[in-house]
Amino acid sequence: MSVGESSTPLGRVRGLGSARAGGEHWLTERVTSIALLLLGTWLIASLLILPKLDVRTIVEWLRAPSAAVPMALLIVIGFKHALDGMKVVVDDYVHEPGNNFALNTLLLFLAVGGGALALFALARIAFGVAG
Amino acid sequence: MLVSILHRVTGAGLSIVGLAVLTWWLTAVAAGPDAYASFAKVVTSPLGLVVLVGLTWAFFQHLLSGIRHLAMDTGAAFDLRINKLFAVMTIAGSLFLTALTWYFLMGVGK
Known about the structure:
The structure holds two protein chains of two kinds.
Chain A: H1 9-13, H2 23-49, H3 55-63, H4 65-93, H5 97-126
Helix pairs in contact in A: 2-4, 4-5
Chain B: H1 2-31, H2 33-43, H3 46-73, H4 80-107
Helix pairs in contact in B: 1-2, 1-3, 3-4
């Protein structure tokens, strides 16, 4: 192994650098982006197609599985993609280890908490507790 | 360069403001007509509409520059002229799609 080369032959075969991780973050960001291309376009198209945007129309729309399922996917994949993307931004600009950890942990809590709140609201609508 | 920065800015905006509005919208619908009325009042105010139009533009800009980045991940479009053309097209496309969306939203009198 020459000076400055950090990966072992096995690591190179597995596509890993010396950190031995990180590839899946990069790939997940791209796979979720393709899903959100479809789901985001679906949401905007749906809002345009709905006859009205009052609470009754939206409740009726989200009670059907054809809307509730893509909305649930949009929430989960949207928060995941946002968290992955914000981590890249934080890691690029916040280098001090303590601040980096604190900010990434705050973002993780916000994403998991926000996603849970949105999913719970959707469940209330879809299962007919609300409206 | 500009489009690459726009991708980050719109991504951060969608992550923070976009997901907050989506979550607020769903919780307001779940909480019933009164909560929904106060949500609707805020988002249809002049400032609220600026935010909604901004989010629509951010979504389309991020979507189009995201497609550009996916294409570049395959090694395509690194030729300077084509690269610049695609970058300009993402801006023109996002402005056009935002205008189209709001034309239809307003057009049906919602």
